[in-house]
C-alpha cells in the first residue's frame, strides 16, 4: 500500500486513501481521490508485470475487451522499495450481472484479439508442470496429506498427457478467465489479470468459466472441455495448499475442490 501511494504521489496523483480490493499473489488497491487501480507485486515479478502491461496495451489497441492502463501516467512498471507497481483505470462496477451469453461473447472477442498476436507465451503444459512441482514440494505444501497429494499428482499428470495427446488447435489464451477476472463495468464486461496468459486450446480457458457459458461459445469440444475442467480444478486446488497462498478462505475451498476431484476421476 505504501509503495503504491508513494508512486502515485510521485506522478502527481493524490492518494490519501487506499482500499484493498484483492490480496493473493498480488495486491490490488483502489487509490483515492485520484481513483486509480494499483496492482502491486514483489519486484522479482517485474518481468511478469511488464508482460501483462504490454499485452493489455496490444489488446486494447485492437478493441479487445480488457481493462486499460491509467492514461494519466507513463505506461510502465514502477518500482519502489522492493515492489513492482502498475497503475490501471478504475472501473465503476455495473449492478447488472454478466449473463452466460454475454460472458461467452466477451471471451470470443478476447480470443479473436489474442489470435492476432505474435508474442512468445508459456504453453498451458508449463502451468500444469508448475502445479506438479508444487505438489511434489513438501516444504511448500506441508499440510497436504499423502492421499490428497497422490490424488492431485495423478490427476495433473494423467490429464496433462491425455489433453496434450489430442493434437487440438491452440492459440494465445487468457489462462484464468474465471468470474473473478471478468469485471461487469458500465461499458460492458472486461477481462483483467493477464499475467496467466498461455498458449493452448480454447477449452482450457472455457474450463475456468461457469459451466453454462460453454453452451454459448461456438465449436466447443465437450470431451476436451470436461478434461480441462478437472485439470484446472486440480491446478487451482494445488495453489490453495501452497503455504504462501493468501486467498481468503483458501483452505476451505481446497477441501471442497478435493472432494469434487474425487468424484470426477
Automatic annotation (TrEMBL):
SUPFAM superfamilies: Protein kinase-like (PK-like) (SSF56112). The keyword Transferase applies. The keyword Transferase applies. It comes from the Bacteria. Keywords: Transferase. Coiled coil: none annotated. Gene3D superfamilies: 1.20.1270.170, Transferase(Phosphotransferase) domain 1. GO terms for molecular function: transferase activity. Residues 24-210 form the Aminoglycoside phosphotransferase domain. This is Phosphotransferase enzyme family protein. It comes from Micromonospora humi.
Amino acid at each position: 500500500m505504501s509503495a503504491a501511494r508513494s508512486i502515485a504521489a510521485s506522478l502527481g496523483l493524490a492518494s490519501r486513501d487506499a482500499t484493498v480490493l484483492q490480496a493473493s499473489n498480488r495486491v490490488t488497491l483502489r487509490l483515492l481521490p485520484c481513483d486509480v487501480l494499483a496492482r502491486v507485486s514483489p519486484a522479482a515479478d517485474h518481468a511478469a508485470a511488464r508482460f501483462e502491461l504490454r499485452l493489455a496495451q496490444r489488446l486494447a489497441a485492437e478493441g479487445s475487451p480488457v481493462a486499460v492502463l491509467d492514461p494519466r501516467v507513463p505506461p510502465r512498471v514502477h518500482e519502489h522499495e522492493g515492489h513492482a507497481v502498475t497503475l490501471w483505470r478504475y472501473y465503476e462496477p455495473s449492478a447488472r450481472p454478466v449473463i452466460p451469453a454475454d460472458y461467452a461473447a466477451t471471451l470470443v472477442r478476447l480470443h479473436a484479439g489474442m489470435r492476432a498476436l505474435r508474442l512468445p507465451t508459456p504453453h498451458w503444459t508449463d502451468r500444469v508442470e508448475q502445479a506438479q512441482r508444487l505438489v511434489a514440494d513438501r516444504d511448500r505444501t506441508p499440510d497436504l496429506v499423502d492421499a490428497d497429494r497422490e490424488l492431485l499428482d495423478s490427476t495433473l499428470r494423467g490429464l496433462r498427457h491425455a489433453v496434450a495427446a489430442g493434437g487440438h488447435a491452440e492459440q494465445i489464451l487468457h489462462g484464468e478467465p474465471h468470474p473473478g477476472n471478468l469485471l461487469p463495468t458500465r461499458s460492458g464486461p472486461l477481462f483483467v489479470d493477464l499475467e496467466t496468459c498461455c498458449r493452448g486450446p480454447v477449452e482450457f480457458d472455457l474450463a475456468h468459466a461457469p459451466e453454462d457459458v460453454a453452451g454459448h461459445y461456438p465449436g466447443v469440444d465437450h470431451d476436451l472441455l470436461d478434461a480441462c475442467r478437472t485439470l484446472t480444478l486440480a491446478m487451482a486446488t494445488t495453489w490453495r495448499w501452497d503455504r504462501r497462498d493468501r486467498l481468503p478462505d483458501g483452505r476451505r475451498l481446497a477441501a471442497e475442490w478435493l472432494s469434487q476431484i474425487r468424484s470426477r476421476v
